[in-house]
């Protein structure tokens, strides 16, 4: 093999520098898009836009009262058309950009076909209409945060819950997780209790942010990705279950045929979703129990040993390097 010349080395360094710059630029663009989306949609820009259109229509109708009947009718028709066009444009903009602007690239590539299917179109229309009069969690920019924290090719564990927390400031796109300064809700406290039982070195933290675990290949996913404020289960059976089932199928259909994963199905909705997919239990580790909610944790969640069993299975199948370090969030 010929030795590399100084010109070769300089050329390689330039190429690597160019790649690094491109990667940084892409990352910056994604952050900007996500930041922009956090100020859109679920924070009610649609209401503002719609209100302006309606005000315009009201003014046009009022002005028309001073004109002959024919002119009045024409003004009302024009005003109504303006409202319809503005609301259609507003809605279509949200439908077109939310996924492409906020979803992680690895997931976006395989899930794009879903966005054009009738069920997903209906789901997005429902969410847009819901947003016009209700508060929805999590904020738009965080609905798909799980996809950015846990790339498709890195998934080792899927923890499937039901729907997001429904109180202000809690849900941020990862099942069971909350960001500071929110304190861990009851369900997460029970998860911490089970972690302390399964992992002797784990000590429950004051924070509820599960992002550091997600970055290790743990997909914290809900069967429904949004919820109306203060109304648990309000967005179930609207289409999310079909979509999240496809998210799971994307993991099952990865190119690596030997890429078995751990499934933790907590609660009946999660179990129904996985049952509808059909999990090959010879290839994957399937674990199920009651939901960690304080209302049901005593019926089988506490004492389920899921975290210990997951690591034991991962070590046996892939070696020690595959172990999930659950203590990464442990209290110091």
TrEMBL record:
Its EC number is 3.2.2.27. This is Uracil-DNA glycosylase. CDD domains: UDG-F1-like (cd10027). Residues 148-314 form the Uracil-DNA glycosylase-like domain. Keywords: DNA damage, DNA repair, Hydrolase, Mitochondrion, Nucleus. Residues 45-78 are annotated as: Disordered. Pfam families: UDG. The gene is UNG1. It comes from the Eukaryota. It is found in: Mitochondrion; Nucleus. Residues 45-54 have a biased composition (Low complexity). The active site is at 163 (proton acceptor). GO terms for molecular function: uracil DNA N-glycosylase activity. GO terms for cellular component: mitochondrion; nucleus. SUPFAM superfamilies: Uracil-DNA glycosylase-like. Coiled coil: none annotated. Belongs to the uracil-DNA glycosylase (UDG) superfamily. UNG family. It comes from Cyclocybe aegerita. It catalyses: Hydrolyzes single-stranded DNA or mismatched double-stranded DNA and polynucleotides, releasing free uracil. InterPro entries: UDG_fam1 (IPR002043), Ura-DNA_Glyclase_AS (IPR018085), Uracil-DNA_glycosylase-like (IPR005122), Uracil-DNA_glycosylase-like_sf (IPR036895). One of its GO terms (biological process) is base-excision repair, AP site formation via deaminated base removal. Excises uracil residues from the DNA which can arise as a result of misincorporation of dUMP residues by DNA polymerase or due to deamination of cytosine.
């Amino acid at each position: 093999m010929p030795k590399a010349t100084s010109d070769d080395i300089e050329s390689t360094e330039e190429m690597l520098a160019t790649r690094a710059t491109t990667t940084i630029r892409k990352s910056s663009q994604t952050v900007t898009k996500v930041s922009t989306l956090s100020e859109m949609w679920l924070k009610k820009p649609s209401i503002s836009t719609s209100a302006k259109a309606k005000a315009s229509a009201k003014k046009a109708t009022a002005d028309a009262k001073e004109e002959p009947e024919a002119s009045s009718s024409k003004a009302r028709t024009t005003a109504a058309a303006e409202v319809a066009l503005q609301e259609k444009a507003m809605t279509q903009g949200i439908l077109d950009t939310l996924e492409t602007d906020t979803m992680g690239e690895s997931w976006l590539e395989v899930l794009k076909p879903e966005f054009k299917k009738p069920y997903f179109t209906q789901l997005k229309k429902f969410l847009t209409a819901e947003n016009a009069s209700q508060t929805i969690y999590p904020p738009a920019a965080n609905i798909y945060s799980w996809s950015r924290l846990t790339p498709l090719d890195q998934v080792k564990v899927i923890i499937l819950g039901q729907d997001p927390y429904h109180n202000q400031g809690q849900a941020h796109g990862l099942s069971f997780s909350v960001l500071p300064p929110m304190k861990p809700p009851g369900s997460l406290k029970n998860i911490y209790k089970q972690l302390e039982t399964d992992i002797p070195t784990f000590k429950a933290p004051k924070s509820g942010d599960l992002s550091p675990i997600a970055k290790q290949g743990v997909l914290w996913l809900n069967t429904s990705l949004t919820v109306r404020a203060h109304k648990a289960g309000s967005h179930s059976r609207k289409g999310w279950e079909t979509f999240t089932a496809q998210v799971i199928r994307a993991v099952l259909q990865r190119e690596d045929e030997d890429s078995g994963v751990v499934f933790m199905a907590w609660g009946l909705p999660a179990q129904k979703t996985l049952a509808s997919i059909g999990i090959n239990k010879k290839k994957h580790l399937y674990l199920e129990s009651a939901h960690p909610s304080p209302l049901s944790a005593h019926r089988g969640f506490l004492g389920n040993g899921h975290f210990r069993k997951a690591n034991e299975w991962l070590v046996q199948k892939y070696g020690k390097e595959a172990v999930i370090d659950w203590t990464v969030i442990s209290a110091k």
